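Comment thread on ticket #2218

A.B. wrote:
> Attaching the input chain for the structure job we discussed in standup.
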Amino acid sequence: MLLVLTLAVARPAATVEMIGSITVEPTMVKGSAAAPVTIVEFSDYQ
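C.D. wrote:
> Ran it. Output below, let me know if you need it in another format.
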């Protein structure tokens, strides 16, 4: 198990590519605006 964890840590970091952007109303935001990750949920109730 230790070997598996060591190999996982030794891998180079993946490159990040921004593929788009969206605008979110400030009243619909929960948490810090400086958070490193943003999760947006879209739902449609019919």
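A.B. wrote:
> Thanks. Noting for the ticket: The radius of gyration is 17 Å.
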